[in-house]
């Protein structure tokens, strides 16, 4: 595999470029969790065979077939994520918190044939909005580099360009801004004509302070419309039509500061890359649940690939501060008549399969007589199946990008397990989830682990659940690439604290 590709894209789901449409983008929109109500998240997100929760619409829609009454619930959440980084031997940290809506849903349970008759006992309809991925976070890292500069990748992009005026206008996502703020310029021969080589005023050899700050926001929410049937209280079958929406915003600011070279005109410069992505997609989910006996049930579900229509808006802004010129600023909008860059394309994310089992203590039919349960899910997803689709003359670029995705990512196994104990109107819960690493390179551990616990109250048709979920993730971020001596990637350790509360009632 090409060394450049290995270095960059094993780099990180966090690594941001000026434009989207990278391997990291495909992974970001493919790595999903169960999400759902506080009850389901307290048991690790294991909702494949448990049923009786609106979260089933996003995991195994057959689960809503276990409902016998109508229900409405609403789940707000508070997520706080902290990132510890190490770059070039220097440690740093950043954090971010945000409120969000984790889930909201309504269930309508009908009884067309009568509960005491054989055959189909009831048909259930459900609608929910569920957050499957949260993109909110801040990352910061810093270190001293005496080998290369972020500006070096601009020099490589302009290599061979002798039309300086054209270069000032034709590279509006970094190189042009660097020329217009005096950060880089052409080398000239004895007759003052450009040679095609370029140089920067960054005093790399004396050591420069590098800082990278990445702030992101948004999420992936899924609207689900589902139906399920209950056959003889033993066999449940269901399906859902789902419309996921993506909103992702990212600002990456990279700054380099002159530390020691008094002969260099540079004080510092910073470049900010802005990316905003909007997407809407469609997929289907089918599922089965079979009660082997009153205590033991099995579940199977299949999620089709999701086909997204995507649109990216992106721009670059640069500020260069020198001793002789002062402060100069230039942006993509300055170069393009007030307009940022925009690009529309489609993305297909992988299909999924979920197998699950639940053991219920006490009566499986009489909810009031249940004493608790143990439940577990196994999920299979092949991240290498994600694929971009560009139109027209860009089709060859999407083919190359998809080949890179196949070389970088692989299939992963995800495990979720949870348990609940009931004490009259109160319940206590605990869970664990493991999401396998999507990377082929075993030296890059992209796995995620979630630890959860919670309590619940149910009485006279009203209920409230409170859950805490802690998650950790290890990843790396490659700030930039050059032909030689690219800096070692920053190592990022993320800890996420998630508090959720579901309130609801039956009617």
Overall description:
This protein is mainly beta and 507 residues long. It has a single domain (3-151, 202-506), classed as Beta Barrel (Porin). Helix content is 12%, strand content 56%. It is built from nine helices and 21 strands. The strands form two sheets. The protein has a 14-stranded antiparallel beta barrel with strand order 1-2-3-7-8-9-10-14-15-17-18-19-20-21. A two-stranded antiparallel sheet has the order 5-6. The N and C termini lie far apart (59 Å). The model is unreliable at 1-18 (pLDDT under 50).
Strand line-up of the largest beta sheet? 1-2-3-7-8-9-10-14-15-17-18-19-20-21
Number of strands: 21
**Name given to the CATH architecture:** Beta Barrel
Main beta-sheet annotation: 14 strands, antiparallel, barrel
Under CATH at level 1, the class stands as: Mainly Beta
Strand % is over 45%
Coarse shape: elongated
Q: What structural class do you assign from the helix and strand content? A: mainly beta
For CATH, the homologous superfamily is named as Outer membrane protein transport protein (OMPP1/FadL/TodX)
Termini separation comes to 59 Å
